[in-house]
């Protein structure tokens, strides 16, 4: 908003995360560079007649709405499927019928498991990038069996992708599909009991941050052996801005947005976060900083996982000239500094209240 003249109509069921961005009518001082250019509309996209009118008023719709917390995929599969497929249908429909451009957020989970994961562990082809690097226009989408309801999210996201693509092919919808690969950074996700539900289970970085803030061991699901790549939110936003500003180069494309250079196992991520948090908080590392828990205990029945998620960057680099810049160590230091500054005192107060009531 500081770098462009755009006006934004933000639609959501709450505005807690963006209150500091809103204009004078929302009680802010109005001195920001974007004052008066962000308008918040409190509505639920799945049952509000105002949605089509807002889409008609806009040049571009960016659809971010989703249930996207892994703890919900196999415990709330109906909500997950409805949120990520059924509730997105009106957005796609109104954009197509009114000739409006759409940037739709999908997920890297649509790829599912890698081909390499089905080879024997000592097979030399497991090391061949062709068997694990994920390409938008080549890689198949491989999900687990139906009883593994964790894949309800990926399946719903794949289906809405296919619908968006079909609207483009048959009805001329101008679209871009974004597949995020673990975007992390300040202001993302929630800390349970502080700015989110006490019983909620956020994604991995916020889960680990919550443990660190509370002085608890980090919980490694099934030993934390799954491998992930992480990209800094500011780098990712630069990619989205390029999509917004270059429709002729972005329309009709699916883009991986991730950082293949920032790959670690979840256990390695935990080790890095423990080290960085101790540095930024000036607090000692626990004697037992990590503990192993089973996926069934942590996520419930029906959980499954992909082995690796490494994005191929060929298409986004060719079309938009984008490459991520921020190393994993730099983005963790920036993020955990923010987490400590923002949440540490609130967590201490909440913890002391809980002890007192007990």
Describe this structure in words.
By secondary structure, the protein is α/β, with parallel strands linked by helices. The chain has one domain (43-353): NAD(P)-binding Rossmann-like Domain (Rossmann fold), CATH 3.40.50. 37% of the residues lie in helices and 15% in strands. The protein has helices spanning 50-57, 70-73, 77-84, 89-97, 152-171, 204-213, 233-245, 247-250, 266-281, 295-299, 314-320, 328-357; strands at residues 8-12, 38-42, 60-63, 101-105, 133-134, 175-180, 183-184, 218-221, 227-229, 231-232, 253-257, 263-265, 290-293, 310-311. The strands form six sheets. The protein has a four-stranded parallel β-sheet with strand order 3-4-6-11, with helices on both faces. Strands 1-2 form a two-stranded parallel ribbon. The longest helix is centred in the last third of the chain and has 30 residues, at 328-357. The radius of gyration is 21 Å and the shape is globular. 35% of the residues are buried.
């Amino acid at each position: 908003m500081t770098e462009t003249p755009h006006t934004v109509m933000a639609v959501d069921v709450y505005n807690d995360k963006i209150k500091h961005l809103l204009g004078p009518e929302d009680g802010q001082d109005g001195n920001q560079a974007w004052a008066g250019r962000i308008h918040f509309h409190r509505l639920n996209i799945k049952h509000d007649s105002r949605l089509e009118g807002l889409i008609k008023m806009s040049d571009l719709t960016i659809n971010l709405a989703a249930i996207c917390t892994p703890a919900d995929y196999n415990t709330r599969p109906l909500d997950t499927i409805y949120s990520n497929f059924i509730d997105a249908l009106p957005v796609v429909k109104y954009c197509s019928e009114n000739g409006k451009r759409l940037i739709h957020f999908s997920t890297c989970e649509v790829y599912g498991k890698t081909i390499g994961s089905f080879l024997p562990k000592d097979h030399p082809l497991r090391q061949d990038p062709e068997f694990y690097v994920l390409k938008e226009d080549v890689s198949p989408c491989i999900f687990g069996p139906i009883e593994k309801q964790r894949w309800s999210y990926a399946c719903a996201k794949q289906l809405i992708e296919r619908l968006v693509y079909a609207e483009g092919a048959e009805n001329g919808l101008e679209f871009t599909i974004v597949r995020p690969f673990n975007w992390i950074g300040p202001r993302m996700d929630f800390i349970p009991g502080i700015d989110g539900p006490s019983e909620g289970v956020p994604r991995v970085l916020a889960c680990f941050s919550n443990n660190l803030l509370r002085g608890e061991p980090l919980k490694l699901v099934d030993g934390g052996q799954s491998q992930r790549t992480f990209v800094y939110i500011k780098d990712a936003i630069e990619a989205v801005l390029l999509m917004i500003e270059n429709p002729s180069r972005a329309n009709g494309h699916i883009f991986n947005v991730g950082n293949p250079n920032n790959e670690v196992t979840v256990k390695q991520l935990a080790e890095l976060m423990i080290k960085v948090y101790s540095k930024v908080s000036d607090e000692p590392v626990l004697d037992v900083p990590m503990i192993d828990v089973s996926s069934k205990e942590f996520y419930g029945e029906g959980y499954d996982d992909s082995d690796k998620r490494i994005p191929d960057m060929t298409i986004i680099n060719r079309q938009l000239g984008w490459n991520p810049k921020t190393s994993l160590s730099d983005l963790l230091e920036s993020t955990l500094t923010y987490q400590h500054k923002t949440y540490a005192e609130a967590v201490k107060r909440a913890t002391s209240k809980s002890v007192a009531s007990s």
